[in-house]
Amino acid sequence: MFANFLIGLREGLEASLIVGILVAYLVRIERRDLLVQVWLGVGIAIAVSLGFGALLTLGPQGLSFEAQEIIGGSLSIVAVGLITWMIFWMGKTARHLRGHLEGSMDKAIAVGKGAVIAMALLAVGREGLETSLFLWAGIQSAGSSTAPILGATLGLAVAIVLGWVVYRGAARINLRVFFQWTGVFLIIVAGGVLAYGVHDLQEAGVLPGLNTLAFDVSGTITSDSVLGTVLKGVFNFSPATTVLEAVAWVLYVVPVMWLFVRTAFRGAPKPAGAPRVTETAATAA
After folding, report:
1. What was the pLDDT predicted at 251?
2. pTM value?
3. What is the CA 109 to chain-centroid distance, rounded?
4. Where along the chain do its domains lie?
5. Which of 54, 89, 210, 241 is most buried per CB count within 10 Å?
6. Is the pLDDT reported for residue 216 higher than 50?
7. Burial of 82 from C-beta contacts in 10 A (0-12 / 13-18 / 19+)
């Protein structure tokens, strides 16, 4: 539940900040007449994201077990790729988000109202599609429990409220720090989703080694115990992990974590004598 809450919070806050920046910019340059186009683009993005989530959930129904496992495993791996790209992108650009979006909005305004709709649609829709896919993968790996859905919903709700509070100027958030540490946690979560995808492909017979275990602690940590439930819900930990799952987890988490910490936590170079500036949501939005 916590992992999905964090995904919903992070992605929802990113989308909320994007909308807040676009709205605030149009108000500041006295182009309120274009707010309708922005909200129309946001509405379409939300509808497309919900439709994508429904397609992921309902599409594989009626297929054979092997086909469902192949689809589930493949999409889990795709989700890991997307979330990894998102983690690195936001880790690098959080401080420049406002300037990037305002520049894109200036170009869209110069083209026309249709371009403004498209710009808002693409900016928010990308976050929505990524969120739908990664949340779907997390919910699938958790089984029939409703906790992941509840966690994701709560995360999105908190993100919307927090985004509104930031927009109104009632809160200041260091976006760089927020995206740095949530990125660290999500890399570990993504490693679990990758291992789950590998296991699905093993069950479908696409990958070998389904019965070759790296370790089996199911006698100590049962899947229905409190500890087993927490580890499964947060890190997608399986008490009986195959060698291929363990290798995939290590080969993903170790280099990706090293590269992310090396790039995202490295301070930006500053001119000699330049004052220290703290990046906050207030300056971004």
Report:
1. 97
2. 0.77
3. 29
4. 2-284
5. 241
6. yes
7. middle
How far is 53 from 30, CA to CA, in rounded Å? 37
Give the whole-angstrom CA distance, residue 98 versus residue 22.
9
Residues 114 and 158: their CA atoms lie apart, in Å, by: 31
Mean pLDDT within 263-271: 63
Amino acid at site 1: M
The span from the CA of 75 to the CA of 198, in Å, is 11
The pLDDT-based confidence of 171 (bands split at 50, 70, 90) is: low
Return the higher-pLDDT residue of 203 and 279.
203
Exposed, middle or buried, 229 (CB in 10 Å: 0-12/13-18/19+)? Answer: middle
Compute the distance between CA of residue 179 and CA of residue 176 in angstroms, rounded to an integer.
5
What is the full DSSP assignment across 185-218?
Answer: HHHHHHHHHHHHHHHHHHHTTSSS-TT-EEEE-T
What are the structure tokens assigned to 70, written together?
Answer: 């192949």
Cα angle vertex 57, ends 51, 60, to 5°? 115
DSSP one-letter code for 276: P
Asked if 56 contacts 132 with a C-beta cutoff of 8 angstroms, the reply is yes
Q: Return the percent helix, strand and coil in the chain, to nearest 5.
A: 75, 0, 20
Give dist(CA 278, CA 180) in Å, integer.
14
pLDDT above 90 as % of the chain: 33
